[in-house]
Every structure is written in C-alpha cells, then in structure tokens.
DNA sequence: GTCTGTGAAGGGCTTCACAGCT
DNA sequence: AGCTGTGAAGCCCTTCACAGAC
C-alpha cells in the first residue's frame, strides 16, 4: 500500500492500540470520511446560527444552508448518535458542541506555518483560523530576508528553530506554504518535530510516515477540474459568447429563510466533498 | 435537487445538446469525477517528467509519483482510451497532451480574481497558475483603498467594472477571495458577467445557476478534517507528547527513482481526491 | 518477461422511503 | 401532522487478478 485514504474513505478498522477508549464519546470510529468532511461544513453554519440567536434548526434548513441534501445530513448526523428531536429538529448549540467534540476541536489546535512568502503571509493573516478554533502560533522561513520580520503579531523565525519551537509551543498542525521543491523537506522537518497533522499548499504529493495525517490543496488542480466540468456541462464546445441576459432562476437559500429549495440551482459543497 | 455533484460524481448522462461532438476526442463524457481530479494530478507530474527529459514512464512510476496506486492509475487512463504500449509504458509527452486535451486545457483559460486582500494578492502573485496553463487577467475589489494599486503586473480595478472587463478580457474562470459575507454577491456578479467556472475561497456555500460550475476551498474545513483523522489515527487520546526520536521508515518516491514502494508510508493525494 | 488494459468482485456512499417518536 | 433516524437498494468507485500485446 502506498495510499493515503483509499479515496473511498473508510470507517477505519480500528488501529488496534487503545481498545477501551475514553468516556464521553460513544463512537468515534466508523464515521465515513465523506461524512467527516461535511461535519466540518455543518459546524460553520451552526456557528452562524448560534450568532444569529437561532435555537432550533431542522435537517432541511441546515442542509440547505450547507449545500447538501437533507437525507444526507440526517444520515451524517446519525453517526454521532441521536442528536435531534423527532417532530422538532436539532438544538443548534447542542449539535454544535457534539460535532466539535467529535472532530476533536475541543482541545485547541495550535498551528505552525512554514513558508512566509505571499501565500504564507496571507494565510498567517487569515482570520478564519482563529474564528474556527485554530491558533496560529509560529511562522518559519528559510530566507534570511524574511526571518525576523513581523507578520501580524508573529515574528518569522528561521526554520532551524522549527523543531524546538514546535515542542515549546505544543503545536499540533503544520502548514506548508513553500515552493514545491522545498515541500518534502519541510514536511520531513515537521514530522521530525513531532507534528502529526500536515496541510500542504504545494503541488507535490508528500510522503509521510504511517502515523501522520497529511492533506494537500492544489489550486491548479481545482481550476483544472473546474475547467473540465464546465466543458462537460456546456456540451464541450463553448463557442457562442454568453448572451448578455443571464436571467435564470437562482435559489436563495441563505440562512434564515432556508426552505424547500425550488428547482434549477446548484450549491457547492466544500471542494473536498461536493 | 439542490446538489452540485451528487458527491459520488457520475459519468454524466449526456447533456443532450451536441451529440455528434468534435473530432479528436472519442469519449469525453463518462469519465468519473474522481478520475478527473486525479488526471489533473497526473498532469503535473507529467510536466515534471517532460522537463526532466523522460520519454517513457510506467504506470507504476507515474502512480508512485502522483501518490496513487498503479491499478487505479491505469484504470483512470483507460477512460481516455488506449494511451500506453503494453510491455513498455506510456509516452510521457503524448500522454500529457491527451490529458490536457481531455481536461479542456488546450484553450487557454483566463482568470479574473475578486478580492484583493491578503489572500487575493497572494493568489495573484502565485506563479503556479501561469505555469499550469491559467492566465490571471484581472483583479477586482470594492475597496477604494485598494483599487488602482498595482499587484504584480495587474492593476486592481473596481468591481463595478467587472462585467465589462470580463467580456473584454474573455475571462472564463472567476476566483473569489473576498470575506464570506460578500461571496454570494460577488458570485452573482461573476455569473452575471458570463463566467461559468467559479472557484471560491470563502467558507459559504454558493448557489449558482445550473450551467455554472463552482468549487470551494475552505481552509478551516481542511484543518478540521485533518484534526479528526489525526485523532482517529492516534487512538483518540494523544496524551503523551511525541517522543524525541522519530525514526520510522519513510519511503522516498521522488520522481526518477520511483519504484516499487516498500511498506509503511502514505502519500497524500490532492485533498480533492485523496 | 514486462507492462498495459479491463472484466469482475467488493466496499463505501448516497438516496429512498418509511418506521417511529413527539 | 411534523421531523428525525435508519434499513435497504443502488450507484460509483476502488481493488484484484489476469488476459492480451509487445
């Protein structure tokens, strides 16, 4: 085997090891990979609902706001055990707590980022992390022209400090935002520093030891897939420039008036699970 | 229906429309969604191989360098028709051309980006696009503090110019790098401007008309999934801080000496298709 | 012998439809 | 009546194993 996730995901057989696992969580294994991805998406919507003061939400509403079908959503949630009340719906904040716990977000994750170039700096300054339970605690680069500079409220440190810093900071996630040809080396260093979650924005596929989880986001791949799907949709030969009048029905399923969605509109799930 | 891709992908039934399609391409439909994603990944590796002067590559080698299994790779390529020579392997540049054509990358895609904040500027400056067949032709923002400024060799224009500019520039792909609450509005404008491929980095799920393809990359989701998978791997209660000595076998499957991969190592496929 | 292409088997995920609770 | 939870069916995809071409 050389695969990461057998792409079809898998309810994880049971890593042997700890068999009598911790208390609160009834079933953490046996959650399909695809479901996990969507749980993260639901979580975000639930956060909005909480902010908005909504207490109860139906599967139909939550599903619409998340861009999935309601049956799929109910199935997904059912993997966490009973979460709603029949005839009523789901308790928003309770459900949110349940998902957070399941995803392991209750222990606050600390993130280090390697590669303080354009993308790295953008990611460092990206507020979405903190807002969703991740704290950026370290920035590293190998270029002396960048090390020492301040990005947000963090100073860029030299990558040689990575190992020690990761342990001191108790980092749990490493993000790679370096050029492609440095990615594997940086990855090795992150693994060496004891991290077991790695998110890479380089295009190269990384190889990591068995116990390390890695994911990759390749922007060019995203666009290429987009390109293909579009070509396929439009019947392959998009000659005629789009007409000026684009008046097609388009569903408004914003939170609040999410409802039975009419007909001809699509919503995008996260790329990871359309 | 409110779904985008029924998540399981689908070999596309046939959009009716053009039935006697263009010449060269024998079968463009009927390619599984999952395969499309990986084709984009293979393409990148093939590019490296070309640069490197390699002429022939075996499924085993290409697969290893792409982070997938060789059987899967052969199956994927088989959807494009015969591409290799039995007992020999694949002609690198021929295969590359075939995939490019299939993905519709031969017509050069032109990309406009909305949202010239941190992320937007980083994306605009990201060389990976051009290197892989996409040309960034326009940058837009709504903030007067940013419009007019130069990012790379493009000036940031006001979003009100979007519609006209898209048509003049013949853009085909729109990228959204705005704050979440502006995303749907920007998306609407892009669609209004005639684009039918949209890539969004906002967390909100966008709704688009039937004929538009949209994808979304949500960084927080990526990390949350990472978090979960890691928790699952490590037996869920990662109490003991990682030991100092991390000496595990790790496969080196870089291009060139890609080979029969030993044992205990994983490689990450693109997030989109692990 | 080597390596591709592919039918068939197996598994995961989605969808449907309804049982069951309030 | 309304909405959740879930077996079962079906689909898509992966994996296996080998036939077939060089």
Description:
The structure is a homodimer. By secondary structure, chain A is an alpha/beta fold. Chain A has two domains: about 20-105 and about 255-274, Winged helix-like DNA-binding domain superfamily/Winged helix DNA-binding domain (Arc Repressor Mutant, subunit A, Orthogonal Bundle); about 110-215, Rossmann fold. The first copy, chain A, is about 35% helix and about 15% strand. Chain A is built from nine helices and twelve strands. Chain A has helices at about 35-50, 60-65, 70-80, 90-105, 120-125, 130, 160-170, 180-190, 220-235, and strands spanning about 55, 85, 90, 110-115, 135-140, 150, 155-160, 175, 195-200, 205-210, 215, 265. A seven-stranded mixed sheet of chain A has the order 6-7-5-4-8-9-11. In chain A, strands 1-3-2 form a three-stranded antiparallel sheet. In chain A, helix 1 (about 35-50) packs across helix 2 (about 60-65) and helix 1 (about 35-50) packs across helix 4. The first copy, chain A, is globular, with a radius of gyration of 21 Å. Chain A starts with about 30 loop residues before the first helix and ends in a 7-residue tail after the last strand. Residues about 1-5, about 10-25, about 235-255 and about 255-265 of chain A have low confidence and may be disordered. Chains A and B meet through helix 1, helix 2, helix 5, helix 6 and helix 8 of A and helix 1, helix 2, helix 5, helix 6 and helix 8 of B. Strand 10 (about 205-210) of chain A pairs antiparallel with strand 12 (about 265) of chain B.
């Amino acid at each position: 085997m050389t695969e990461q996730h057998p792409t079809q995901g898998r309810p994880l057989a049971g890593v042997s090891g700890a068999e009598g696992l911790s208390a609160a969580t009834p079933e953490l294994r046996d959650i399909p990979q695809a479901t996990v991805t969507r749980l993260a998406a639901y979580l975000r919507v639930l956060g909005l609902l909480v902010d908005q003061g909504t207490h109860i939400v139906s599967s139909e509403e939550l599903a619409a706001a998340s861009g999935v079908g309601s049956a799929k959503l109910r199935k997904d949630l059912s993997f966490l055990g009973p979460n709603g009340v029949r005839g009523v719906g789901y308790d928003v904040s309770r459900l949110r707590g349940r998902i957070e716990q399941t995803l392991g977000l209750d222990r606050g994750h600390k993130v280090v980022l390697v590669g303080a170039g354009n993308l790295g700096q953008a990611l460092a300054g990206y507020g979405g992390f903190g807002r969703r339970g991740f704290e950026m605690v370290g920035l590293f680069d190998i270029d002396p022209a960048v090390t020492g500079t301040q990005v947000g409220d963090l100073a860029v440190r030299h990558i040689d400090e990575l190992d020690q810093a990761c342990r001191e900071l108790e980092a749990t996630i490493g993000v790679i935002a370096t050029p492609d040809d440095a990615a594997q080396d940086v990855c090795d260093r992150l693994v060496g520093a004891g991290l077991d979650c790695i998110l890479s924005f380089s295009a190269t596929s990384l190889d990591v030891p068995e116990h390390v989880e890695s994911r990759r986001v390749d922007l060019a791949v995203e666009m290429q897939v987009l390109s293909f799907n579009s070509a396929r949709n439009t019947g392959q030969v998009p000659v005629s420039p789009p007409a000026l009048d684009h008046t097609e029905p388009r569903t408004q399923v914003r939170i609040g008036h999410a409802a039975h969605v009419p007909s001809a509109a699509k919503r995008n799930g996260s790329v990871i699970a359309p």
